[in-house]
Amino acid sequence: xxxxDGQHKPxxxxxxxxYAAVLDVVSHTGMVLIAAGFLSYVLRLLPLxxxxxxxxxxxxxxxxxxxxxxxxxSGWSWVQDPLHGDVLSFISIIFLSMxxxxxxxxxxxxxxxxxxxxxxxxxxLQVLVLVAAVVGIAS
Amino acid sequence: MTRVDGKKIWWFLAAxxxxxxxxxLAPEAAAASLPAGGETSWWIWVLLLFIFSFFLxxxxxxxxVGGGVLFVPIVxxxxxxxxxxxxxxxxxxxxxxxxxxxPSLLRKGLADLKLSLxxxxxxxISSVAGAIVGLRMSADSVQLLLGIAIIAIAVIMxxxxxxxxxxxxESDVIARALGISGSYYExxxxxxxxxxxxxxxxxxxxxxxxxxxxxxxxxxAGWANVPVLNLLMGAPLKIAVATSGLVLSMNGAxxxxxYIYKGAVLPLIAVPxxxxxxxxxxxxxRILSKVNTGSxxxxxxxxxxxxxxxxxxxGLGL
Lengths: 139, 318
Fold this sequence. Notes:
- The structure holds two protein chains of two kinds.
- Chain A is an all-alpha fold.
- Helix content of chain A is 64%, strand content 3%.
- In chain A, helix 1 runs antiparallel to helix 4 (85-97) and helix 1 runs antiparallel to helix 5.
- The termini of chain A are far apart.
- By secondary structure, chain B is mainly alpha-helical.
- Chain B has one domain (3-315).
- In chain B, 74% of the residues lie in helices and 4% in strands.
- Chains A and B meet through strand 1, helix 1, helix 2, helix 3 and helix 4 of A and helix 3, helix 5, helix 6, strand 1 and strand 2 of B.
């Protein structure tokens, strides 16, 4: 570690600033979606695929056991019929879980443009790991 | 002491007491006093979870630990939700906290993208593996191992020191090849701190194991990320704390998808937990300078030991 006196602005990598800008938008959007989705769920502003009471009656079971009894949203099962309160709340969680991947996709071209191929490759591999999880290959 | 300070101290005391409340109540008493769920009672549990998560958010900021490490053992021991759903929510608690703090820390140069990417790549692969293994094991086995892990983490937190600005002689080959170094402005000493890291290969190995444990138990891993980044790899403490969050946001996301596919993420549990912890963290950050964080850390370690013991007894069916 070395120190330099005085208050000068440290130089931040351009890819890092792009990541921060995208993350700012994505995380704020995610928070709004989380709140809106949950309110539409518990206030029953939209019809539900599974009632709140039914979920609460089974939340002591293992996830696999609950799935045998109820069709709660999981993975991408909601895509065909998304306009339900519980599904919208679930989608908001999906969005939050994809935040890091969205940010990484945005910085890969920045790494390439800066001829930083090592980090472009690492970021690409990281995206592939997340995509494998998102599409269910890892599951 | 000013009137405002007094209010902040009361916030602190309320946070500690309410977060610790489930630990002093016998689980049987809690279960008997409230219905397990169903037609009229679901909102009571959801509201209690939100309130608990809110105060947990305050305490976790003051103690310098992520919310996930306390959330999973306490909620799984004292709320009627199955451990599967608690772990799914715990991962979301950990990653959402890291996401909301991320932009500001990245812009200040405290969270470092280049330091985080190689570590999160290794960690996200192992966290997926940990999540798969955790969901295949019996709930009692996971509960037992969780209790042992929480007590081990409490011991690590007691024993591990911290170093504001570790001395790093020569960077290792990987760190040099990837250009892992940076600088940030430290207002407390009015200096720009230039930093670099060493022992990256060993750091990568440790991050593999940390990711596995985090995915398996649905916990954040700041308790392990920070000592490895700070004490082993030589990153300044502020860089270690901020970059740990960035790593966590990627590892947590990868593992969370395993839980999402298994139907182990219920919005009814995950959203109040995420919302409560995030709101509480904002309050915690405001009162941070007014309380003795060393004392809070000791209280949190004691809470972890108690929660760990409860988890072990539950796992053993006692």
